Amino acid sequence: LFAGETDFLKGVVAMNGLPPDDRLEVCFAGRSNVGKSTLINALTGRKGLARASNTPGRTQEINFFTLAQSHYLVDLPGYGYANAPLAVVEKWQRLLKQYLSGRANLRRAFVLIDARHGIKSVDEEILKLLDTSAVTFQCVLTKADKVKAAERGKILDQVRAKLAKHPAAFPEIIQTSSEKGDGIATLRAVIAGLV
Ligand code: GDP
């Protein structure tokens, strides 16, 4: 799947802009700066494919990429900007809710969590939304290279305990480092294995 071509398809700002749901889809969500663009670039092997959306007021687009003509990879806008205008946050939440509850071909959401910090309250909001939308989600820990082995166990326990409270959570946690390449093959295999 990841040996095939990956291309940017389009940025979507409203439900009527969504591409037809004619192929399997996975989406990526995460707090801004969690390492989402770096991970998508590592997964697809294309530097610069996904760009960090570091401007709070910027148009919040849902970015669609095609994977080998058979899948969509969807990059959801980063959340949790400290200074994001309320109107922007509300517009984005509305679109996100509509997207998550209405996308028949969406097989799994990958929620990126910084391996140093674990699940924070800002992440809980999207986990709850995934529960109510009945979208199976899987946690991907990012920047694992920044965490010492001794600390890793503690964070994993925290994440596991929090996931246990979410009916839509897939129990297995994937630990990744885009820097070192850890977990990238695992994540690719998980996506390729979805039916
Ligand atoms: P986004 O806002 O979620 O798209 O975050 P970015 O992908 O732009 O990453 C935010 C920052 O974290 C950048 O400075 C990246 O270089 C850094 N980063 C991303 N992934 C990793 C990783 O696996 N290890 C380390 N050490 N840094 C990372």
From TrEMBL:
Residues 22-195 form the EngB-type G domain. Coiled coil: none annotated. Its cofactor is Mg(2+). GO terms for cellular component: cytosol. This is Probable GTP-binding protein EngB. The keyword Kinase does not apply. Necessary for normal cell division and for the maintenance of normal septation. GO terms for biological process: division septum assembly. HAMAP family: GTPase_EngB. Pfam families: MMR_HSR1. GO terms for molecular function: GTP binding; metal ion binding. Belongs to the TRAFAC class TrmE-Era-EngA-EngB-Septin-like GTPase superfamily. EngB GTPase family. Keywords: Cell cycle, Cell division, GTP-binding, Magnesium, Metal-binding, Nucleotide-binding, Septation. The gene is engB.
